Amino acid sequence: MNQGYQLRETVYSALFAALIAAGAFIAIPIGPVPIVLQNLFVLLAGLILGPRWGLASVGLYLLMGACGFPVFAGGTGGMGRLLGPTGGYLLGYIPAVLVTGLISERLGRTRFADAAAMVAGSLIVYGAGVPWLKFATNMAWNKAVLAGMVPFIPGDLLKITAGVFAAEIIRKVIK
Fold it and tell me: Which CATH number fits domain 3-174: 3.10.450.50, 3.50.4.10, 3.60.110.10, 1.10.1760.20?
């Protein structure tokens, strides 16, 4: 790889880390898990940057939050957030961005591939977040699913739709 490529991807990774953080400030509290735009930017990082550089952006974002920077939902930060009820969702961003990037790359970066990749990434976030929520709050499974997944599905479908079209536009701009 040439240095120009690495510099460009490093800048894009930092930009996506900032976008993920900005997405956390757009939060609607509806219970133990707020509605946020973070996951849109996490999944877009996978689509646009691919698994490697997408992981770099999510890793940087989580590191900033773990160090106490106010980048998590509601302008919070610190290890307590990673260990609290929403920690599973936050940590779920790591495999979600990897899988989203891999699916998009392998299927050819079409609208269908991007939609499939974002659905898979969203399912991974739920798969990490709901069990964590259940155990962190001592909720019953049905209550954890009702509090940590069901209310988010309509919004996630809108985010996926917007993300597919945004990825198509962003790819043209950054080429």
Answer: 1.10.1760.20
